[in-house]
Amino acid sequence: MGEVLEEATLRVPAGNWSQTGGRQGRHTEHLGCLLAEMQFLQRAYPGAQW
After folding, report:
1. How crowded is the C-beta side of 31, counted as CA atoms within 13 Å?
2. Contact 34, 27 (CB under 8 A)
3. What three-state secondary structure class fits 17?
4. Cβ contact 5:13 at 8 Å
5. CA distance 45 to 37
6. pTM of this structure
7. pLDDT in tens, 1-50
8. What is the pLDDT of residue 48?
9. In angstroms, how far is CA 31 from the centroid of its own chain?
10. Which residues 6+ apart lie within 8 Å of 23 measured at CB?
């Protein structure tokens, strides 16, 4: 995984960092865009399996 991150010029967060709060309904503003796109795909291709 380290090689992939290095090739993508990404850094691993320091320490034991992890995202929290999603199960309590706390999300970033980016989730709205992702949900809209996923809902469009599901409606455009009903019955599709990914």
Report:
1. 5
2. no
3. coil
4. no
5. 12
6. 0.46
7. 889 988 999 988 788 877 888 889 888 888 999 999 989 988 999 988 87
8. 86
9. 8
10. none
Please answer whether residues 19 and 13 qualify as being in contact, where contact means their C-beta atoms are separated by less than 8 angstroms.
no
Helix (H) or strand (E) holding 32: helix 30-44
* Residue 20 backbone dihedrals phi, psi, to 5 degrees: -135, 165
Q: Tokens 């399996």 belong to which residue?
A: 49
Compute the distance between CA of residue 9 and CA of residue 5 in angstroms, rounded to an integer: 6
* Residue indicated by tokens 């970033």: 28
